[in-house]
């Protein structure tokens, strides 16, 4: 695996893997070539083991976190937040037993949280929020002791300390659509009932008074009589008018 400086404005590093064959077995030496204050510095295995803190947050790093990170066993703080890292969290991340601070938030990491993470007893700060991590949070006192905000905005993540429960390792599905349909049905029935009651009350409020009060009843029938007479006269006039036009 390699990453190297391409221009003066770009600082990067090489990982050299030197192999030596010995009776069918292979040995590996990890070296890092770093640009530091304009000069190249080579660090071997011993030098890398002294590295205590890495902060590469708020950059544009992409692809996966390299598995070789396990060689930085002296690391105390690792911050790779606010990048574009994808794929899984390295399954061997639990080998960083000295880790006290781990922030991988606001990336695009997927799949489940490695169970090896429970082996880091010294971990006091953890942030995996705003990723696409899924499945059940590994059962372990260390991971359950963190606040739920450390895991927020991972829709398919479940288990303590999150309120979303797991069923066979998968998040419980909330019956959102069913609740909405039930609520809609209740609302429709409620308004239909209110409308029916309103119609009945209005009908008997008006016609009840017509039946009970003589003056209202007389006025109502006079209104109907006048209305029928008016309709009759209008109809007769129109028929007479059409008859005259046809005779011409």
UniProtKB/TrEMBL annotation:
EC annotation from Swiss-Prot or TrEMBL: 2.7.10.1
Family statement drawn from the similarity comment of this UniProt entry: Belongs to the RLP family.
Protein name, UniProt field: Somatic embryogenesis receptor kinase 1
Organism, as annotated: Glycine soja
Principal location: membrane
Domain of life: Eukaryota
GO annotation, cellular component aspect: membrane
GO terms, molecular function: transmembrane receptor protein tyrosine kinase activity
Localisation: Membrane
Keyword Transmembrane helix listed: yes
Record keyword NAD present: no
Alphabetical list of InterPro entries matching this protein: Leu-rich_rpt, LRR_dom_sf, RLP23-like
